[in-house]
Amino acid sequence: MKIMLVRDRNVLNTNWLVYFVNLLAEKGHEIVLVCDTYSKLGSGNILSDKVKLVNLSGKTENPLINLYHKLRCKLIPAYWRFNQLIKAEKPDVIICYFPVDLFNVTRFQNHDIPIILMVHNYPPVILDKYKNKPFFTRWYYKRSFDKVSVFHVLLNSYIATVDKFFEPKKIVSIANVVYQFKEDEKADLENEKKRIIYVTRVEKKIKRPHLLVEAFGRIAKDFPDWRVEIWGLRKYPEYDAELEELIKKYHVEKNVFLMGYCKDVKALYKTADIHAFPSLVEGFSLALADGMAAGLPSLGFKEALSVNEVIIDGHNGFLADDLDDFTEKLRLLMSDKNLRIKFGKNAVADMQNYTPEIIIGKWLKLIESFDKSKN
Predict the structure, then answer these.
(1) Residues β-bridged to residue 197
(2) What is the DSSP letter of 165?
(3) Among the four residues 30, 241, 282, 370, which has the most C-beta atoms within 10 Å?
(4) Could you state, in order of their start, the residue ranges of all structural domains in the chain?
(5) CA 231, chain centre distance (Å)
(6) Of 183, 119, 107, 188, which is closest to residue 154 (Cα–Cα)?
(7) Which one, of 285, 290, 259, 274, lies nearest residue 185 by Cα?
(8) Predicted local confidence at residue 353, as pLDDT
(9) CA atoms 310, 314, 318, 319: torsion sign
(10) What is the pLDDT at residue 275?
């Protein structure tokens, strides 16, 4: 089958996306990965030579074509370009990464190609803004959503959250593929590093690294040789300043560090003893799951959607009721190496439920359900 996967930009920045299309290509399907961007193709990941990458407005060696593409991105609606490409490629299935990609492959188009819409977060976070628009805009969006054959969500518990406004014909739950670490890549918890990490985006409302700073700050005097590292993209200087002030408040300038973006996250997990994860909500956090697959015990909040399904309290980590509980459970993990080792081993075993074979197998079953030659 020919599968067209659409993401408007940054396709080569998204580790999971490149990994996903490469795996599909290995299974013998013809993959066309499509974006429409002049300047944000991305980098850092390598596509299989079996994957065809089409950038509808990419830079070329010709400056006149570049000028045309740059202007076209601003002046001509993307759906016109996608319409031409769909007619030329004739895919059997289209997978849309975001709603904007769905709009690009449906507006003013009359094809009847099955469409799978991925929802890479807690569905209301992604979808609710479209049902709350003014009447005409809402009607306009709904015409595209009505063309979706299958809504893809990340967890079974999310199925019931897809609002009736979207009238999905079918909703399928498939989690993300989790990288399975080799033995020499996993965290060696026997060798105590006295290091807590949080791999995240440094942001206040959802990711909440300040809660980790606060929790550690309360007990830091009992663990003077431990270190907390907050790794991730920093885009909010005001919030960075808040975190720095909090670090100063607890006098942990020599213990807590804002590390910035990490190019090799998988290697980072090997350097840690604990992955603290105070996020409020996730879709299916690969940062958390990868840390667990590397053998790290994790600590999150019971209220945190997705986190509270991936972390099993008392088995592969802890889930806290509130900040006080988070602080005490952090203390317990820091104090008990044997407990960390136990949780880490359980975490590795649990993440084997998300191997490429299992997850891609589910995707293949879904995609091949549209194979007309088998129906």
Answers:
(1) 229, 275
(2) G
(3) 282
(4) 2-177+356-374, 183-353
(5) 16
(6) 119
(7) 290
(8) 95
(9) positive
(10) 98
Could you tell me the fold of the domain covering 2-177+356-374? Rossmann fold (3.40.50)
Structure tokens at 373: 């030659």
Cα(207)–Cα(67) distance, integer angstroms: 39
Q: Provide φ and ψ at 354, rounded to 5°.
A: -120, 30
What is d(CA 247, CA 90) in angstroms, rounded to the nearest whole number? 56
Residue 94: what pLDDT?
A: 97
Residue 167 has pLDDT above 90, yes or no: no
Q: Which of 135, 80, 101, 87 is nearest to 33 (CA)?
A: 101
* Cα distance between residue 203 and residue 242, in whole Å: 11
Q: Amino acid identity of 69?
A: H
DSSP state of 44: S
Is the confidence at residue 264, as pLDDT, over 90?
A: no
pLDDT of residue 54: 93
Q: Do domains 2-177+356-374 and 183-353 have the same CATH topology?
A: yes
How much is the CA Rg of the chain, to the nearest whole Å? 22
Instruction: Give the Cα-Cα-Cα angle 236, 265, 288 (nearest 5 degrees).
Output: 80
Q: How many CA atoms lie less than 13 Å away from 6 in the CB half-sphere? A: 28
**At residue 345, does pLDDT exceed 90?**
yes
Q: Are 102 and 118 in contact (CB under 8 A)?
A: no
Tell me how far CA of residue 134 lies from CA of 101, 129, 148, 178, in angstroms. Answer: 21, 11, 22, 39
Res. 316: pLDDT tops 90? yes
Kindly indicate the confidence band of residue 158, based on its pLDDT and cuts at 50, 70 and 90: very high
Q: Which helix (H) or strand (E) holds 20?
A: helix 15-26
Superfamily of domain 183-353: Glycogen Phosphorylase B; (3.40.50.2000)
CA dist 47 and 17 (Å) reads 10
Q: For all residues of the chain together, what is the average pLDDT?
A: 93
Q: How does residue 375 score in pLDDT terms, banded at 50, 70 and 90?
A: low
pLDDT of 265 above 80: yes
Q: How far apart are the C-alpha atoms of 363 and 20, rounded to whole Å?
A: 10
